[in-house]
Design brief:
Two copies of one chain form a homodimer. By secondary structure, the first copy, chain A, is an alpha+beta fold. In chain A, helix 11 crosses helix 12. Chain A is globular.
Chain lengths: 780, 780
């Protein structure tokens, strides 16, 4: 096992072998656990007076805070949705002979923290010496169940090492929590009620009322502790409480060499799922059920469920343990952030690991994460991601209305919790409209992958039409160019603002129109009645609107440069001083930390895949030489200062058989947080970009595509690896693909037969018969 | 006298004849008084529980508040400079038989408020009936002296109308004040000390410490009250105080029909001018001197000084009392905002009338206000405006450095108090770089008008070189165009952001270079030694830098359209959907209140003079047909949603003999606040744009220019006016110009002879001999 600067490399675990207070906040992020419904940073159970970022989050529960902005501009959203630090339940504070256990004030004699990704469990064992010379060994095992998602559990062991120790143990739940991100350093929770009865303790808290049209959330947080004293002696406990806490308090004299164990079961349920007045009762029931199951059964079920998840989604890499750990860490984080159980939830850019960015939903979901869930989770998981947007269509229409659009045009928000826009930089919110295209493209992607055409009829077309209506109003006609133009946008490359004719935006707008026209003509054939109902519901003026759309699609301006044979990122891009990334002094990188914003804007440097994003999504529209020419040009200018960028370039580099470049770009994605490349892991993890690691392997190295219902692979193998293999769920089949230096092996399960293309040749693959194809290089 | 909706028209006064609480905040703005050093909104002396915006300001005293901004961008200034509500001294609270006098809770039987602009005095008389049926007549006369600028004074009379009245009078000073504009609703003042001795009361307060590299201000506020009881009876007073107030308290039984008079003398002195530890003593001295002079002498001196100001700057309009009142209001406000006594002060966009906009100095000063002060005030006044920028050159160089510029390049801030940038919208602060050009142009303007060429040698060239160094780095070379381009700017039209090649910006950059080269070659001839010292001081690499500048000036790209013979506001402007203002539904105007920002940005509508600003400043570079063609095109697209816009279009319209358009645009400027066109006068007045009223008359209707040292007039007379006349200070001469329908009359004073051009013909004008020229129409 080689060791990176921060954590030990291990194929299934993240391991920290010594306590380093300087890295503690990074570790709190990296060791976070979650289950789609809730999750936490790896804050210690004991009191900790060192630097820490307290974080315990419940999916979908947010606070609509006052928008901070310089001067107000018309159309700004009222509020900024804050990922809200929820009441917390992980605290077990200990005093030994009156001295508070606190790693920041103790001598740490040994320390090991382990995130077992196979089991979804956080484990820590450490021996410390307090100021009063008492030595204790503390061991904690923590998880949030992916079976009973409203349940979290801790097994906490305290062992007296060097003497008999009079211990006070305080296990509590509290709503006395703060957000690091608060405009006025204010608190966001108010106590509704609390209950302590028998061994159950429950706090019910509510987010403060705001002047905004946004929900107020109520959350019930409950705990039940079970104390196991050495030799089965009894421990008498008592409860204390104040407005914001309930604490169970135990006192025991722990003999030298013996161990007391606390099993703490906790629940968090919210008004997102239940009536407010039932939360107390439901929390009680959840705790009783959990207690009935016991900690060890909950733990076993949880591990088993993770095993099932890994059977569908694991990627194995031979010969590169850092890469192995990186890809499993990516998959693990994605799986614990979003499980697809609830179409009201989505994939926050920081998941359950931090507050930054606010809001839960960005175009990251559709453009980067969807392919991962499509291929690694049951269909319903991806469908719920799409339904999330379908259900928010009214708000997207409202959002467009706010900006002056009519006739049911929809502009999906750039950042949202409930469908309302809740970010406030005009150049992003108002102008980064290509996101609408990604939402349409996700429908195509989903249907293409799953063949669930019924989705189009029931949901998809309505969204597509609303998006097309937006494009139809957002374009304008240039009398000079005699073309439709899209002025004043920000493309995926956010190092350009308010530009005209961003090629990617114009291209995806045209694609939306053409795809929608194709779907309309198909639905009219196969589901005429439902189509008729829809056009009535949305008063679709089929003739007029389709004529206009067709005209726009035919005559939209797509900037290119004939001299260099380039697609132009936007009109005028070549007027910029042309420099390449290798001309940048390393002291000036990342440029967003060293250059002023205006300098970034007028430079030719690119934050993230923009033209290349379009080449990735619409690769079939371009010959390989066009892709190569443009990739080479833009890759040389791309600083990849978005976590979402290198993965896309990596996939395209793989397509171009530029395996070294593809590998280099893959590395930038897959261990971004584990190695803290960007010095920001302490704020939380880059969850959505973790899908990029997966894309770079499966779509990149393995060249997986789905075309006309057929699975296609064009595998290449980075020379740093001995082999890699992965699982793919495709419709009813579970497929395992292994790529070695000489052969590609494919196995299928759950279906008896599947036709699969490898290196452009079709194979008839049968269940339980491994297909072996000779590895080929330089196949495009 | 006709009456506008708000105030009575009067040639010298603003009069409000009845109390309307709904308009009280507007009146508080309009009736503001100031003296360059300090000033206030017309807040009542008595307690007032209705809607009011408390405002008392000291020039140059600000608070560096935390910058509010969405997501931080590199290069943002640390703080936003708030115009700070200073401790106040105008309060005289009265209880009559225990009942608080408060116009919001009284029956107002009569009310008259008068701003006498000739005398610079605010007067109010009203009779009210309190809830307890006691009727009082209150009369206040208030001014802030333009002779002793650290002194303010109130004469306050209370008359018992319908009964004998037991009165309590509380005259106080207080630092318990708040800014309406506070991020966190916090206070900004802390008490340092206070002193009450004999009849003098003084508070010393200090602005709170901030983490920013910006000054902390200390202010001493003092008062001395003199009570005059009826029949010369004595009034015994006592003093009370708390941490933030000192109050002088009097009790008297006022017989029916008699009057008590309070003369309140006040002072405010600040650490901007004196050592902090001397402020208390200085405040005492100021008060003693003022008391020695007495209220009535202070008042008489003040009125006399205003008379002198008017002798240099008055404009008379016959036949249009609303216009007469409008232009005098504009001149009055400009004169009381900036007197030129102190080169550390400047002309805040709201002067002493409100908090909005923060900061004191915008390009408004150079581009709009300077010509007014040049022509109506002694030379030193304008020189101090220029020295303000000269003295802040180090900060402008620092500001440019922050944005990545080197070699002593200067970017003057968009908004500032001390020379540091303190606004935070990137599209304005980082990109609205044309302001640098206005600062250079002001040097040209000043020297052209005054012939003070020594200024160039001593100060001007150093600023010009630093500005040129900025342009030389800010341009880049387009390989496509084979021209220098300026990318990523915001022009004067702030309804475009981050555009490329704004014609005005590129043009003024070129002008700066050419002007500087001309000045360098002149200074080398006439002041070789001083030149040598300067180039050493700033390590000016004459050869290399001048070669580059010359190349840039020769090869800078200026966007034009040959098809329509247009100057293009920016590259790509004609790609926008071309609409004219008359196609805008009135319900959608102003568009900045009805359209979202992105819609404004991509529309062709123009906020304020941009190409036309360039045509105004560089009119000699263009033939009249080019000016006409471009004016007609851009005027049709300009919504004039900046108060600084219509005046410039008006001047150009006058030049084009388009007198009706010129008059229409003049009206939009001159009564903007008096008639509250934009529904924002309650926040304060548009001080800097008031110079536009003056420009529209003197440069517009009268066609005044100074060319090669000669004064030129090309007068036209709006048909709505019988005549107009104005005074101009030109070098040593005081000139009076009168324009009637048949004749133009010119008189000169202080010099025996002056050659003046009228309608392109030169006249030899002698002191005390009136020149009369026949009025001509259609002369260009």
């Amino acid at each position: 096992m080689k060791t990176s600067s921060l954590f030990t490399n291990h194929e299934w675990c993240i391991i920290e072998n010594q306590f380093n207070p300087e890295n503690h906040q990074i570790a709190e992020s990296v060791f976070s656990i979650g289950n789609g419904h809730m999750g936490q940073r790896a804050n210690f159970e004991e009191s900790y007076s060192g630097k820490t970022l307290a974080g315990n989050y419940i999916g979908g529960v947010f606070y609509p805070d006052k928008t901070r902005v310089g001067w107000w501009k018309n159309g700004y959203p009222d509020y900024f949705a804050k990922v809200l630090n929820a009441p917390s339940w992980t605290h077990i504070h200990i005093r030994a002979q009156g001295e508070m256990c606190d790693l920041a004030r103790s001598k740490v004699l040994s320390f090991k923290r382990t995130l077992n990704m196979q089991h979804g469990t956080l484990h820590r064992i450490c021996t410390i010496e307090l100021a009063n010379k008492i030595q204790l060994t503390l061991e904690s095992t923590r998880f949030v169940s992916i079976v009973d998602t409203e349940i979290g559990a801790i097994q906490y062991k305290i062992t007296a090492v060097n003497s008999d120790v009079p211990l006070e143990i305080n296990s509590f739940i509290t709503s006395d929590v703060r957000n690091e991100d608060a405009n006025y350093n204010e608190t966001f929770w108010e106590t509704v009620t609390q209950k302590q009865k028998d061994t159950l303790s429950i706090l019910v808290d509510k987010t403060k009322k705001t002047p905004y049209k946004a929900p107020v959330f109520t959350v019930a947080t409950g705990m039940k502790n079970i104390f196991y004293a050495p030799n089965n002696t009894d421990i008498q406990t008592k409860y204390t409480s104040n407005e914001k806490n309930i604490c169970e308090h135990a006192q025991i004299v722990l003999k030298k060499g013996t161990t007391v164990v606390i099993e703490k079961l906790a629940t968090q349920v919210s008004s997102l799922h239940y009536a407010e007045n039932e939360l107390l009762k439901i929390a009680e029931e959840r705790l009783q059920n959990a207690a009935h199951k016991t900690f060890s059964n909950l733990h076993a079920e949880h591990i088993h469920a993770w095993k099932k998840k890994w059977e569908l989604s694991d990627i194995q890499i031979e010969g590169d343990i850092a890469a192995q750990q990186g890809i499993r860490f990516s998959i693990f984080q994605l799986q614990q952030t979003y499980t697809g159980a609830d179409s009201r939830l989505n994939i926050g850019p920081k998941g359950f690991t931090g507050e930054k960015y606010g809001g839960a939903t960005y175009w990251d979901t559709e453009a980067f994460c969807l392919p991962f869930y499509l291929a690694t989770s049951p269909e319903q998981v991806s469908k719920n991601l799409l339904l999330y947007r379908y259900n928010q269509l009214p708000q997207a229409i409202e959002n467009a209305k706010k900006l002056g659009f009519t006739n049911g045009a929809a502009l999906y928000p750039m950042v949202t919790m409930t469908g309302e826009e809740c970010h406030n930089e005009w150049e992003i919110t108002f102008e980064e409209i290509h996101r609408n295209g990604a939402i349409a493209y996700a429908i195509y992607n989903y249907v293409n992958y799953t063949d669930d055409k019924a989705y189009l009829i029931e949901y998809g077309l309505e969204v597509l039409i609303a998006i097309n209506r937006f494009w139809a109003q957002r374009v304008s006609f240039s009398q000079i160019k005699k073309k439709y133009v899209i002025l004043g946008v920000t493309g995926p490359n956010e190092y350009e603002n308010n530009i005209n004719n961003n090629w990617y935006t114009n291209y995806i707008a045209r694609w939306c129109i053409n795809y929608t026209l194709e779907i309309i003509s198909w639905i009219k054939r196969v589901a005429a009645e439902q189509y008729a109902q829809l056009i009535q519901k949305i008063t679709f003026n089929e003739n007029l609107e389709i004529i206009r759309w067709t005209d726009i699609a035919k005559n939209i301006y797509l900037p290119t440069d004939n001299q260099y044979g380039l697609i132009l990122q936007q009109e005028g891009y070549l007027d910029k001083e042309q420099k390449t990334v290798d001309e940048l002094p390393s002291a000036e990188r990342p440029i967003n930390q060293h250059w002023s914003w205006d300098r970034i804007l007028r430079s030719c440097y690119i934050k993230q895949a923009d033209v290349v994003q379009g080449l990735y999504m619409f690769e079939h529209d371009f010959d390989i030489e066009t892709i190569r020419r443009n990739f080479d040009f833009y890759e040389a200018r791309c600083v990849h200062e978005s976590s979402l960028s290198p993965c896309i370039h990596s996939v395209v580099a793989s397509k171009l058989q530029n395996i070294d470049k593809a590998y280099e770009l893959y590395l930038r994605t897959s261990r971004l947080d584990l190695d803290d490349y960007n010095k920001e892991a302490h704020e939380g993890l880059h969850i959505t970009s973790m899908s990029g690691s997966w894309l770079a392997i499966v779509q990149g190295f393995a060249g997986m595509r789905v075309e006309k219902g057929k699975l296609i692979f064009n595998p290449i193998l980075p020379k740093q690896w001995k082999s890699y293999s992965f699982f793919i769920l495709f419709r009813n089949a579970l497929i395992k693909v292994s790529v070695h230096s000489k052969y590609v092996h494919i196995r299928i399960k759950n279906v008896s037969q599947l036709f699969i293309h490898v290196y452009s040749k079709e194979y008839d693959v049968r269940e339980n018969e491994e297909l072996t194809v000779a590895y080929q290089e330089n196949v495009q």
